[in-house]
Amino acid sequence: MLFKILGPLEVTGPEGDLAIGPPLRRMLLAALIVEGEHLVTQERLADVLWGDDPPSTATKNIQTHVFHLRALLGRERIERRHTGYVLKITPAERDTDVFEQQVRQGRLLVGLGCYKDARVALRRGMAQWRGPLLADLPSRAAWRGAANRLENQKLLVIESLMEAELGLGHYETVVEELSLHLETYPLHERFWTQRMIALSRLGHRSSALMAYEQARQTMNQELGVEPGPELRDLHQKILQS
C-alpha cells in the first residue's frame, strides 16, 4: 500500500486508488500519515478537524472516522494507544520517506562526483512530487512545519540535480529546467548561478550576461538588494572571458 501526501492525498492499494471518504476523514488520515508511526492524540486530531470549535461529539466522530478507515485500510493499520492513534506504516509506503531516502543517496553521490547515479536517484526522488504537501486539504498547523521543511528540501534537491546535470555536460537540460523553476522561485539565487554556468558552457555568453541582469533586477525590485558574491563573481568571470 502506498500513502501519498506530496500533492493531493492519495492511498493506493493492490487494485488501485482507494476512496478515502469525506473531507474530515481525509484530514484525519492526513494527520496520521504526516506523523508516521508517532502517536497523534485525540486532542490534536480534533484541532485538525475543527480548530478551536470542536463539536460536543468530537470524540465519537473521530472514533467513527477511524472505524471507517480501518475498514478501508485494514484494522491492524490504525492502532489505538492511550490518548490517540498511530498509523502503522513503513518508510517504503510513504512518498515523503521515499523522497528523502532517494535525496540522501543522490546528494551523497553528487558529493562523490558520481553524477550519473546521482541523477538517477535525485530524479526518482523528485518523481514523488505531485504538488505541495496535501494540496487538496486546508492548511493546518499539524502539517505546516513538514510542508515548509519539505519545500526547502526540494529546492536543495533541484540544486543537486542541476549540479549532476552540469557534471554530465547536459547544459541544455539545465537551461530548460531552471527556466521553469525560476518562474516559481525567482529569488533563489543558486538557480540563477547554475543557469548562467550552463549558458556560458554552451557558448551563449550574451545570454549568460542577460540572465545576470534579470537576476539583479528581480532581486533589486523584490528585495531591494544586489546579488550575492557567488553570482557577482560568476558575472565578472564571464565578462572577462
Automatic annotation (TrEMBL):
PANTHER family: TRANSCRIPTIONAL REGULATOR REDD, TRANSCRIPTIONAL REGULATOR REDD-RELATED. The keyword Transcription applies. Pfam families: BTAD, Trans_reg_C. InterPro entries: AfsR-DnrI-RedD_regulator, BTAD, OmpR/PhoB-type_DNA-bd, Sig_transdc_resp-reg_C-effctor, TPR-like_helical_dom_sf, WH-like_DNA-bd_sf. Keywords: DNA-binding, Transcription, Transcription regulation. Residues 94-239 form the Bacterial transcriptional activator domain. GO terms for biological process: phosphorelay signal transduction system; regulation of DNA-templated transcription. This is AfsR/SARP family transcriptional regulator. One of its GO terms (molecular function) is DNA binding. The lineage of its organism: Bacteria, Bacillati, Actinomycetota, Actinomycetes, Streptosporangiales. Residues 17-87 form the OmpR/PhoB-type domain. It comes from the Bacteria. Belongs to the AfsR/DnrI/RedD regulatory family.
